[in-house]
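Example 321.
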Amino acid sequence: MSQQLVEPEGMAFGTPYPWVFVDGAFVPAEEARLSVLANVVSYGTGTFDGIRAYWNAAHQELYLLEAAAHYERMRRSARILGLDLAVADPVPATVELLRRNGVRRDAYVRPLLFLAGEQLAVRMHDSETRFCVAATPVPGDYIDPRGVRCMVSSWRRASDVAMPNRAKVIGSYVGPALAKSEAIRNGFDEAILLTGDGYVAEATTSNILIRTGTEWATPPVTDDILEGITRRQIMDLLGERFGLVVTERRIQRSELYACDEALLCGTAAVVVPVVEVDGRPVGVGGPGETTVALQRGLQAIARREDHRHHEWTTPVYEELT
Ligand code: PMP
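Predicted structure in complex with 4'-deoxy-4'-aminopyridoxal-5'-phosphate:
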């Protein structure tokens, strides 16, 4: 019997904004067509990224969070795939896209670089590539910020010898998608994936950090994770605000059961406390104190309610300098 999957309330992102940026021009979304024969549709040959824009009503300003870092990662992803992100600096085009769409609420920006050619062959070379950026409103939370109950997935991260994990490859999201559905079907909120050899890697679309006693740890970038930009921000904030150094080291599954605090972090998730893993409470079974402080701290930076780290945000309506 098939079980219906119901998305938690507020999780759905809104209707896409009407203008998209495609190959250097702003076009109405309904004109930005892609052939069903496009190579990417069959084989997932391309890379994507996700950038958040945060609305500050008091400032009447929209701030892009870490846009340059996301495009830098996309450029690296492209390099790994042998593709070329031809636009020298996509940030101004992204700012213009948000302005054209008159975005005055939290939004999610979706850049894509993919093989649009119609060749049947499975290969990365000699194909037409396209680069586009679209945006959708974010009406609610991607994942419940009050805390998630996780399961360790039966699906594992593909190893870097099979899939370049530090590239955000379109086709590589089938594994995380299966893991997410497995978790929801089993009554959990989110899945944690292990590496092929059984060490903790990350959740479906977010990185993981755990605290045991006073030690914060996170899997190293060589353990088949996507190198999250939020992960780096959290490591910076733990250092600056709490004087803590995060150890990047291999983490065993049983550490998830024994740790005192755990969090997931990513552009969509932001910072989310892990309150349970495989039915075992994490710490006291509620959001960790430091996690909640990081959650608030990062949001305040993202909306420029905090005077620190303005270099992480780009104002959309102010003139670009
Ligand atoms: N891991 C995976 C597999 C992801 O898709 C994401 C989201 N991009 C992350 C981690 C978190 O990365 P970031 O903080 O850059 O969004």
